[in-house]
Amino acid sequence: MSINPRMFSVEDARAVLSNTPSVLRALLRPLPIHLLTVNEGEGTWNPMQVLAHLAWGERDDWMPRIRLTLDKGEAEPYRPFDREAGFSLYAGWPLERLLDEFGELRKASLHELDRVALQPDDLSRKGRHPELGPVTLQELLATWVTSDCAHLTQIARVLTKHHGQFVGPWRKYFSLLRDQK
Protein backbone atom coordinates (compact mmCIF):
# COMPACT_ATOMS: atom_id res chain seq x y z
CA MET A 1 0.00 0.00 0.00
CA SER A 2 1.29 3.42 -0.89
CA ILE A 3 0.64 6.04 1.75
CA ASN A 4 0.94 9.75 1.15
CA PRO A 5 3.49 11.14 3.61
CA ARG A 6 1.38 14.28 4.14
CA MET A 7 0.34 14.79 7.72
CA PHE A 8 -3.24 14.25 8.87
CA SER A 9 -5.28 17.43 8.71
CA VAL A 10 -8.69 18.42 9.99
CA GLU A 11 -9.34 20.15 6.65
CA ASP A 12 -8.76 16.92 4.72
CA ALA A 13 -10.98 14.99 7.12
CA ARG A 14 -13.70 17.62 6.87
CA ALA A 15 -13.56 17.51 3.06
CA VAL A 16 -14.36 13.80 3.03
CA LEU A 17 -16.98 14.07 5.78
CA SER A 18 -18.79 16.92 4.02
CA ASN A 19 -19.20 14.87 0.84
CA THR A 20 -20.68 11.73 2.36
CA PRO A 21 -24.33 12.91 2.42
CA SER A 22 -24.30 13.86 -1.26
CA VAL A 23 -22.53 10.63 -2.24
CA LEU A 24 -25.16 8.60 -0.37
CA ARG A 25 -27.97 10.62 -1.96
CA ALA A 26 -26.55 10.08 -5.47
CA LEU A 27 -25.96 6.37 -4.86
CA LEU A 28 -29.19 5.44 -3.07
CA ARG A 29 -31.92 7.84 -4.15
CA PRO A 30 -32.57 6.36 -7.60
CA LEU A 31 -32.72 2.77 -6.32
CA PRO A 32 -35.90 0.75 -5.94
CA ILE A 33 -36.73 -0.44 -2.43
CA HIS A 34 -35.68 -4.04 -3.09
CA LEU A 35 -32.10 -2.86 -3.73
CA LEU A 36 -32.13 -0.80 -0.53
CA THR A 37 -32.93 -3.91 1.50
CA VAL A 38 -30.55 -6.50 0.00
CA ASN A 39 -27.61 -7.64 2.08
CA GLU A 40 -24.74 -10.10 1.89
CA GLY A 41 -26.38 -12.72 4.07
CA GLU A 42 -27.27 -13.35 7.68
CA GLY A 43 -25.73 -10.89 10.10
CA THR A 44 -24.90 -8.30 7.41
CA TRP A 45 -26.43 -4.89 6.83
CA ASN A 46 -28.43 -3.61 3.91
CA PRO A 47 -27.99 -0.06 2.52
CA MET A 48 -30.89 1.32 4.62
CA GLN A 49 -29.36 -0.12 7.79
CA VAL A 50 -25.98 1.39 6.91
CA LEU A 51 -27.65 4.78 6.45
CA ALA A 52 -29.50 4.43 9.77
CA HIS A 53 -26.21 3.50 11.46
CA LEU A 54 -24.50 6.57 9.98
CA ALA A 55 -27.32 8.86 11.14
CA TRP A 56 -27.18 7.39 14.65
CA GLY A 57 -23.41 7.94 14.70
CA GLU A 58 -23.98 11.64 14.08
CA ARG A 59 -26.25 11.78 17.11
CA ASP A 60 -24.37 9.57 19.54
CA ASP A 61 -20.77 9.04 18.51
CA TRP A 62 -18.47 11.47 16.73
CA MET A 63 -19.09 14.98 18.02
CA PRO A 64 -20.13 13.83 21.51
CA ARG A 65 -16.77 12.06 21.81
CA ILE A 66 -14.87 15.06 20.43
CA ARG A 67 -16.62 17.34 22.94
CA LEU A 68 -15.92 14.93 25.80
CA THR A 69 -12.24 14.74 24.85
CA LEU A 70 -11.97 18.52 24.75
CA ASP A 71 -13.89 18.98 28.02
CA LYS A 72 -12.67 16.07 30.16
CA GLY A 73 -9.73 14.44 28.40
CA GLU A 74 -9.18 10.91 29.67
CA ALA A 75 -10.98 11.57 32.97
CA GLU A 76 -14.36 10.34 31.67
CA PRO A 77 -14.58 7.45 29.20
CA TYR A 78 -16.74 7.66 26.10
CA ARG A 79 -20.15 6.09 26.39
CA PRO A 80 -20.21 2.77 24.50
CA PHE A 81 -21.65 3.18 21.01
CA ASP A 82 -24.53 0.88 20.07
CA ARG A 83 -23.81 0.25 16.39
CA GLU A 84 -27.37 -0.96 15.73
CA ALA A 85 -29.39 1.57 17.74
CA GLY A 86 -30.23 3.49 14.57
CA PHE A 87 -32.02 0.43 13.19
CA SER A 88 -34.88 0.80 15.67
CA LEU A 89 -34.78 4.61 15.87
CA TYR A 90 -35.16 4.94 12.10
CA ALA A 91 -37.26 1.82 11.46
CA GLY A 92 -39.91 2.49 8.85
CA TRP A 93 -38.45 5.80 7.70
CA PRO A 94 -38.57 6.25 3.94
CA LEU A 95 -35.25 6.70 2.17
CA GLU A 96 -35.72 10.38 1.36
CA ARG A 97 -36.48 11.26 4.99
CA LEU A 98 -33.49 9.26 6.24
CA LEU A 99 -31.18 10.87 3.68
CA ASP A 100 -32.43 14.30 4.80
CA GLU A 101 -31.96 13.37 8.46
CA PHE A 102 -28.40 12.21 7.90
CA GLY A 103 -27.62 15.29 5.80
CA GLU A 104 -28.93 17.66 8.48
CA LEU A 105 -27.19 15.81 11.31
CA ARG A 106 -23.89 15.79 9.40
CA LYS A 107 -24.25 19.50 8.60
CA ALA A 108 -24.74 20.20 12.31
CA SER A 109 -21.75 18.02 13.22
CA LEU A 110 -19.50 19.82 10.75
CA HIS A 111 -20.74 23.19 11.97
CA GLU A 112 -19.82 22.16 15.51
CA LEU A 113 -16.46 20.81 14.35
CA ASP A 114 -15.78 24.19 12.72
CA ARG A 115 -16.90 25.97 15.89
CA VAL A 116 -14.44 24.10 18.12
CA ALA A 117 -11.68 25.14 15.68
CA LEU A 118 -9.27 22.32 16.37
CA GLN A 119 -5.64 23.32 16.08
CA PRO A 120 -2.77 20.96 15.16
CA ASP A 121 -1.77 20.67 18.84
CA ASP A 122 -5.32 19.58 19.74
CA LEU A 123 -4.96 16.45 17.62
CA SER A 124 -2.72 14.85 20.25
CA ARG A 125 -5.25 15.44 23.07
CA LYS A 126 -6.50 12.18 24.50
CA GLY A 127 -9.88 10.79 25.37
CA ARG A 128 -10.71 7.36 26.74
CA HIS A 129 -12.48 4.74 24.66
CA PRO A 130 -14.39 2.20 26.82
CA GLU A 131 -12.65 -0.76 25.13
CA LEU A 132 -9.52 0.62 23.49
CA GLY A 133 -8.33 2.89 26.29
CA PRO A 134 -6.55 6.16 25.48
CA VAL A 135 -7.13 7.51 21.96
CA THR A 136 -6.15 10.82 20.42
CA LEU A 137 -8.42 13.31 18.69
CA GLN A 138 -6.48 12.63 15.50
CA GLU A 139 -7.28 8.93 15.78
CA LEU A 140 -10.94 9.72 16.49
CA LEU A 141 -11.24 12.06 13.50
CA ALA A 142 -9.40 9.62 11.23
CA THR A 143 -11.76 6.87 12.39
CA TRP A 144 -14.78 9.04 11.56
CA VAL A 145 -13.50 9.52 7.99
CA THR A 146 -12.51 5.86 7.68
CA SER A 147 -15.96 4.84 8.92
CA ASP A 148 -17.64 6.95 6.23
CA CYS A 149 -15.43 5.51 3.50
CA ALA A 150 -15.86 1.95 4.78
CA HIS A 151 -19.64 2.26 4.86
CA LEU A 152 -19.76 3.72 1.34
CA THR A 153 -17.64 0.76 0.27
CA GLN A 154 -19.96 -1.59 2.15
CA ILE A 155 -23.01 -0.31 0.28
CA ALA A 156 -21.20 -0.55 -3.05
CA ARG A 157 -20.07 -4.10 -2.18
CA VAL A 158 -23.66 -5.17 -1.36
CA LEU A 159 -24.89 -3.79 -4.68
CA THR A 160 -21.94 -5.34 -6.54
CA LYS A 161 -22.60 -8.76 -5.08
CA HIS A 162 -26.33 -8.53 -5.77
CA HIS A 163 -25.82 -7.68 -9.43
CA GLY A 164 -22.79 -9.92 -9.67
CA GLN A 165 -25.05 -12.95 -9.43
CA PHE A 166 -26.04 -12.28 -13.01
CA VAL A 167 -22.72 -11.54 -14.75
CA GLY A 168 -22.05 -15.06 -15.97
CA PRO A 169 -18.52 -15.60 -17.29
CA TRP A 170 -17.43 -12.04 -16.45
CA ARG A 171 -17.31 -13.13 -12.78
CA LYS A 172 -13.61 -13.94 -13.17
CA TYR A 173 -12.84 -10.23 -13.68
CA PHE A 174 -14.32 -9.09 -10.34
CA SER A 175 -12.39 -9.78 -7.16
CA LEU A 176 -15.48 -8.94 -5.10
CA LEU A 177 -17.32 -11.85 -6.70
CA ARG A 178 -14.65 -14.52 -6.20
CA ASP A 179 -16.13 -15.64 -2.89
CA GLN A 180 -19.55 -16.19 -4.51
CA LYS A 181 -20.64 -19.40 -6.17
Approximate helicity band? 55-70%
**CATH H-level homologous superfamily name:** dinb family like domain
Judged by helices, strands and strand pairing, the structural class is: mainly alpha
Would you tell me which CATH topology applies?
A: Four Helix Bundle (Hemerythrin (Met), subunit A)
Low-confidence stretches: none
Number of helices: 7
Radius of gyration: 18 Å
Alpha carbon gap, first and last residue: 29 Å
Order of helices and strands: HHHHHHEEH
Broad shape: globular
Major β-sheet annotation = 2 strands, antiparallel
Number of strands: 2
Taken together, the total number of domains comes to 1
Using the coordinates above, name the CATH class. Answer: Mainly Alpha
Architecture in CATH? Up-down Bundle
How large a portion of the residues is in β-strands, by DSSP E?
A: under 5%
Description of the molecule:
This protein has 181 residues and is mostly helical. The chain has one domain: dinb family like domain (Four Helix Bundle (Hemerythrin (Met), subunit A)). The chain is built from 7 helices and 2 strands; from the N terminus they run ααααααββα. It has a two-stranded antiparallel sheet with strand order 1-2. α1 packs parallel to α7 (137-164) and α3 (47-60) runs parallel beside α6 (95-116). The longest helix is centred in the last third of the chain and has 28 residues, at 137-164. The two termini are 29 Å apart. The relative contact order is 0.16. The mean pLDDT is 95.
